[in-house]
Design goal:
The protein has 216 residues and is mainly alpha-helical. 54% of the residues lie in helices and 6% in strands. Strands 1-4 form a two-stranded antiparallel sheet. A hairpin with a 2-residue loop joins strand 2 and strand 3. Helix 3 packs parallel to helix 9. The protein starts with a helix and ends with a helix. It binds iron/sulfur cluster.
Length: 216
Amino acid sequence: MTRTRKKSAKKRTLYDARYLESRLAQLPPAFRDLFRDAYIGARKLRARADDAVAPPGLMDMVDRRCGEWSLHARPACSEGCAWCCMQDVLMAPFEFDAVREAIDSAGLGDRVRRNLAASDTGPTIHVDGRDLPVSPCPLLDDEHRCMIYTARPLACRTQFAMHAEKCQNAFEAARDGNADASYPRAGDPAVIGIAAREAMQANRRVFLRDQLRAHL
Ligand code: SF4
């Protein structure tokens, strides 16, 4: 009896099952397993990490789940294809800690500042009351590879496309001022990133370029 009580108390503190069930009900059925597994996986890591905001292993867990999905889905994404990196990145504040650490430890500050200044003069697209850049992410190198790849935010890790040319077309349409331009829907693993963020209870969102401007 005592053991059962202890076990259920532990289960309750890991995550709120009612919240998870109501959240799953808002998602299309095809996304539910991806969301559930990532949410529970992230909550377990968070529970083990005491006070850490972003527990070690969170990004590895997200990568592992995206990798499992990719094995079956075979997305078109490959190194050097960076059409989806031509926009700003929305993320939880805790995600920027790793980005900043990666920039500092690789001595990339000056280069990123130069890239940021160049991207500020590029074209923008008006989305949700805000002018968003349609230009290379300041963290891309000359070969269109992410300079902080292992520390990239959740939105970047979970962005997959089945046809690279659709991403290219979307970028070119946005750059040319087509008001209807929009990137193809991020692949199914986008819900893995959303689940991980919600498991961290990170409701506030910030833009990557704003964070770079404020902290570099
Ligand atoms: S952080 Fe890296 S992966 Fe994400 S948009 Fe920038 S260059 Fe691309």
